[in-house]
Amino acid sequence: MSVVAAIGGQWGDEGKGKVVDYLAVQARYVVRCSGGDNAGHTVVNPHGEFKLRLMPSGVFYKGTTSIIGNGVVLNPAVLNSEIDGLNSRGIDTSRLIISERTNLIMPYHIVFDGLEEEALGGKAIGTTRKGIGPAFADKVARTGIRAGDLLDKKNLREKLTTALEYKNKILTKVYGKEPLSADEIYEQYCDYADRWAPRIHDTSSMISAAIERNEPVLLEGAQGFLLDPDFGTYPFATSSSPTVAGACIGSGIAPNLLTHALGIFKAYQTRVGAGPMPTELKDETGETIRELAHEYGTVSQRPRRCGWFDTVAARFSIRINGFDSIAVTRLDVLDKMPQINICTSYKIDGKTIDYFPASIAELEKCQPVYEELPGWESNTNDIRNFEKLPENARKYVLRLEELLSRPVSLISVGKRREQTIIRQNIF
Ligand code: GDP
Ligand code: IMO
Ligand code: MG
Predict the structure, then answer these.
(1) Residue of 223, 226, 271 with the most ligand 2 atoms within 8 Å of its CB, for mutation
(2) Does ligand 2 have an atom closer than 6 angstroms to the CB of 127?
(3) CB-side neighbour CA atoms (13 Å) of 292
(4) What is the predicted pLDDT for the residue at 298?
(5) Which of 28, 95, 266, 387 has its CA 20 to 30 A from that of 235?
(6) With a 6 A CB cut-off, is 286 part of the ligand 1 pocket?
(7) What Å distances lie between residue 145 and 64, 66, 96, 159, 369, CA to CA?
(8) Is 13 in the active site?
(9) Topology at the third CATH level for domain 3-101+202-260
(10) What backbone phi and psi angles, to 5 degrees, belong to 30?
(11) For every one of its 427 residues, what pLDDT tens digit does the chain have, with 9 covering 90 and above?
(12) Given this model, what pLDDT does residue 302 score?
C-alpha cells in the first residue's frame, strides 16, 4: 500500500505541481486537500505547459482519478474556466470528483477579501484576493455553503438567503457598498449545480476504499508550511493548514495510513505577499535569482521575494510535518552562482538562536548566519543521475541532507517532467 503526501515545505511555489505530475504516474488517485485557487501549480509535460489552480496535477494520466478534497475551498467559476481550458487543449477531465464536504467560495468572499485587505492599508497581508480567508472564516463560523448543498436547490436558496442577509448588512453598513443580489447568486450557483452535481460524492470513503484495495494515492498539498495559520508567519499566512496533518484532514484519511510524507523545498527560498523572511536578499543577488528563475507569481504575476535556503525554517517544517524525505527543486537555478549560502542559524540582538520564532517582531530582527559553499557554475538541466551532477552540486545537496537530517529522495533540475533525478523510491 502506498499513500504519499507531497507537501510544500517553505512559503509555497516550491514546485509541487512539477513533482506531483512526475510522481502521479504511480498513483490511482491524486487529491488536492487544502487551499483553493490561491494555488498556482505549474506542470510542464508532453501535453504542454499548464498552470493549475484547483485541478489536481495528476489529471494528465488516463488511469488517475482526480479528487478535490473536503479541505479545499472551491470557486466553481474558476473550476469551470479551468476545466474548459484543459478540455480545449485535449486533456480529459472526466475523472474529476468533488467532495460533498468542500466549502464553496461565494461572490461575497471575494468582495470581502479585497475590502479587508484595503482596510488594512500598509499592514495588508498581500492575499491573492481570491476570497480564500473569508471562505475559510465562514467554514469555521459554520455559515459556509458546501458542494453538497448544490444537490438540493431549496436548501441552497435558504442557506444563501441567510448568509447574504448578514453579509449585505456588513457590506452596506460597515463598508458603505451596494448589497449583492441573492437572486443573481442563486441563479449562478444553480448553473454550477447543474454542471457539477454528478461529480459531487463522499470522496473520503472513496479514498479509504481505494487504500483498502491497495491502490496508490497521492495527496497534493497547496501553499507551504510557513504559510500555515498555526505555525507560519501569522498573521502573514493563508487560512488552511498546508501541512501533512492538514492533508490528512483535507482528504479525509486517517494519519496512520500515510506511507510517505515528502517535503518539497526549493534549492533556495521565495515568498510572495507580505511578512518576514529572514534570508531575503534585497540586493543584486536576489535580483539575479529572480531573473534567472523567473520568480513571478503563477496566479498574480507578483515578483517573488528571493533568498537563500533557510535550514532553521526547514528543520521546523520537518519537525511539524514529519517529512520522511525531501524533494529539492530548481537546483538548476543555482547553476550560474559562484557562491551559494545556506542559513544555519539566526542572530537576534547579538544572540545566536536555532529556532524559528513565533513573533513577527522577533522574526523581523533575525539576521541569518550563513555557511558559504562554492557554486558549480555548470549546467545541470540534462543530468538524470545524482552521481553525474557536478561535485559541488552533490556537496550542496549532501550538506542540506546533513543539516536537515533527512534524505533527499528527489532532485528537480528543470521545469519539465523528465528533468528529475530520483535517489530513493517514494511510492
Ligand atoms: P507550486 O505552486 O509549488 O506548484 O510551484 P509553482 O508552479 O507556483 O512555481 C514553481 C515554478 O518553478 C514553475 O514555474 C515551475 O515550472 C518551475 N519549476 C519547477 N521545478 C523546476 C526546476 O527544477 N527547475 C526550474 N528551472 N524550474 C522549475
Ligand atoms: P501554491 O500552492 C505562494 C500567500 C499569498 C499571501 C498569503 C495569504 O501555488 O504554492 P491567501 O490568498 O491564501 O489568503 O493569501 O498566502 N499564498 C501563496 N504564496 N504560493 C501559494 O500557493 C500561495 N497561496 C497563498 O501570497 O501572502
Ligand atoms: Mg504556485
Answers:
(1) 223
(2) yes
(3) 18
(4) 74
(5) 266
(6) no
(7) 28, 22, 20, 7, 47
(8) yes
(9) Adenylosuccinate Synthetase; Chain A, domain 1 (3.40.440)
(10) -120, 125
(11) 899 999 999 999 999 999 999 999 999 999 999 999 999 999 999 999 999 999 999 999 999 999 999 999 999 999 999 999 999 999 999 999 999 999 999 999 999 999 999 999 999 999 999 999 999 999 999 999 999 999 999 999 999 999 999 999 999 999 999 999 999 999 999 999 999 999 999 999 999 999 999 999 999 999 999 999 999 999 999 999 999 999 999 999 999 999 999 999 999 999 999 999 999 999 999 999 999 999 998 777 889 999 999 999 999 999 999 999 999 999 999 999 999 999 999 999 999 999 999 999 999 999 999 999 999 999 999 999 999 999 999 999 999 999 999 999 999 999 999 999 999 999 9
(12) 87
Query: In sequence order, what DSSP letters do the residues of 224-241 get, joined into one string?
Result: -GGG-TTTSSTTSS-SS-
Protein residue with least CA distance to atom 16, ligand 1:
415
Q: What's the full length of the chain, in residues?
A: 427
Residue with cell 490511482: 28
Residues of the chain with CATH 1.10.300.10: 103-196
- Looking at the DSSP assignment, which residues form a beta bridge with residue 351? 348
Atom of ligand 1 nearest to the CA of 411: 23
Q: Which option is the CATH number for 267-422: 3.40.190.120, 3.20.20.100, 3.90.170.10, 3.40.50.300?
A: 3.90.170.10
Contacts of 186 (CB under 8 A, 6+ apart): 156, 157, 160
pLDDT at 299 (0 to 100): 73
Measured in angstroms, how far is the CA atom of residue 127 from the centroid of ligand 2? 7
> What is the whole-number distance in angstroms between the Cα of residue 347 and the centre of ligand 2?
28
pTM of the model: 0.98
Among 332, 251, 273, residue whose Cα is nearest residue 132: 273
**What's residue 327's pLDDT?**
98
Q: Which ligand is nearest to the CA of 222?
A: 2
Instruction: Output the CATH code of domain 103-196.
Output: 1.10.300.10
Residue 56, ligand 2, Cβ within 6 A = no
- Coil, strand or helix at 327: strand
Tell me, using a 6 A CB cutoff, whether residue 222 lines ligand 2.
Answer: yes
Q: Determine the 3-state secondary structure of 281 from DSSP.
A: coil
Residue 37 beta carbon below 6 angstroms from any ligand 1 atom: no
Q: Where in the chain is the domain with CATH 3.40.440.10?
A: 3-101+202-260
Ligand 2 binding pocket mutation candidate from 54, 227, 265, 266 (most atoms within 8 A of CB): 227
Residue range(s) occupied by CATH 3.90.170.10 in the chain? 267-422
